[in-house]
Amino acid sequence: MTDYMSSETPAVVERDKRHHVHPYQVFDTFAEDGALPIASGVGAYITDTDGKRYVDAVGGLWCTNIGLGREDMVEAIADQVRRLAYSNPFVDMTHIPAANLATKLAELAPGDLNHVFFCTGGSTANDQAYRIAQFYQAVRGKPEKRHVISRIDAYHGQTYASVSIGGKPGDRIEEFEFLDNVHHLSSPNQYRYGRDLSEKEFGGQLFAEFKDKVAELGGPEKVSAFFAEPIMGAGGVVPPPDNYLKSIWEYCRENDILYVSDEVVTGFGRLGEWFASEKLFGIQPDIITSAKGLTSGYIPLGATIFSDRIFDVISDPGQGRYLPMGLTYAGHPVACAAALKNIEIIDNEGILEHVRDVGPYLIEQLETLKDLPMVGDVRGSHLMVCIEFVRDTATGEPYPYQIDIGKRVSNECDELGLIVRPVENLNIMSPPLIITRDDVDFIVETLRTAIPLAHAEAEEMMAGA
User: Fold this and answer.
1) Cα separation of 118 and 329, whole Å?
2) Which of 52, 252, 418, 457 sits 20 to 30 Å CA-CA off 58?
3) Per-residue pLDDT of the chain (465 residues; tens, 9 = 90+)
């Protein structure tokens, strides 16, 4: 393993700037600032090429659930590479890790979700869910059920179908085209859009909007599926108003509309459960999509888990039918072995129970920051949280986007040894599930120092504008 010296950092940064195009790269600022080069990671900590250590409160990207650098994961991966590094997953070939992992996921998933289609990540898992839903409706003689409903601020991935289903305004730019059969409802962000309503009133309003949209599209006989994250992730860590998602699920069940629960972020422990849909929200989806925590980020892997009801229709004997979907690296044996070991670790070490203890403590401690200027909202659940920064906490007036307040706070945190994720006026946190109460205290103390510094800088800029 290469040990970088601090003298190499400028060269690494320059090579990266010249040749590596990053996801969501902001070209002007990147050309000037470059990226922070990370050299190593252990547990909940990462170290840059200058030897500076950080608490990674982002958890990689919602995914380093069991922590970095675990030797038991290294050995499981290496053993599988020695045994079988690759196997063709198409048609009539399989391997032991894929068969074992599919069986395990069917055991962990709620209800009759007993069928697993593997892929390489969350985007492809949601793309597959879209295609399975459309295939299911067509082969049962209902090709007119083609419309899909999602929500503004939803994030479902980056493939053509998944980004079309997503509703983040920043992703839906005019330079790209999107599927024309996907429709977006209002964001369920009550802090931003329902401040004058009770939670019950806001949820009822959103549910009424859903029913109106179904009617507008021609009724349930025209709608294929509804896609929803149990808690919105990249769209701002938005928990649903009480009973809102369950009301939509009940309507879908009664009206022959598939309910797809995107648990790419919420699955595998982030909310203290293997899957959150049933346990936390009382929803039995027709399809669950997963990735990220499935392997804790050690190897890319995604899975679309779907019901007996769907499988029985699409696999109806005697039809000569096949499912024309597949990826070269779907169900990769090394990735499946990593997932199996990851699940074993979560189970054996009581990590779900740990999240149920430390998660509420994180939110409780972050709530104490509301006495600071510009802390408008603290929201989330367990180890999936964010802080929303505003210029006026009484009215919720945001800073102009040019101020980039979330990035200013994260820059101050970087200096103090803490990684948080800036998304416009937010700092999002999804730390490894193994963080301790001491780690939580460090996160909150660091934010308490960083936020006033960023606030002073922002107000100085506003005064000079």
Assistant:
1) 9
2) 457
3) 445 556 689 999 999 999 999 999 989 888 888 999 999 999 999 999 999 999 999 999 999 999 999 999 999 999 999 999 999 999 999 999 999 999 999 999 999 999 999 999 999 999 999 999 999 999 999 999 999 999 999 999 999 999 999 999 999 999 999 999 999 999 999 999 999 999 999 999 999 999 999 999 999 999 999 999 999 999 999 999 999 999 999 999 999 999 999 999 999 999 999 999 999 999 999 999 999 999 999 999 999 999 999 999 999 998 889 999 999 999 999 999 999 999 999 999 999 999 999 999 999 999 999 999 999 999 999 999 999 999 999 999 999 989 999 999 999 999 999 999 999 999 999 999 999 999 999 999 999 999 999 999 999 998 876
DSSP state for residue 269 in the 8-state scheme: T
- Helices 351-367 and 333-348, interaxial angle, to 10°? 70
The answer to whether the CB of 265 falls within 8 A of the CB of 273 is: no
Between CA 232 and CA 237 the distance in angstroms is 5
**CA distances (Å), origin 47, targets 36, 50, 369:** 10, 8, 27
Residue 196, judged by CB atoms within 10 A of its CB (0-12, 13-18, 19+), counts as exposed
State the greatest distance between any 2 C-alpha atoms of the chain, in Å, as a whole number. Answer: 74
Nearest-angstrom CA–CA distance, 74 and 341: 10
Domain-by-domain residue ranges, the chain?
Answer: 36-66+350-464, 72-348
Around 302, how many Cα atoms within 13 Å sit in the side-chain half-sphere? Answer: 23
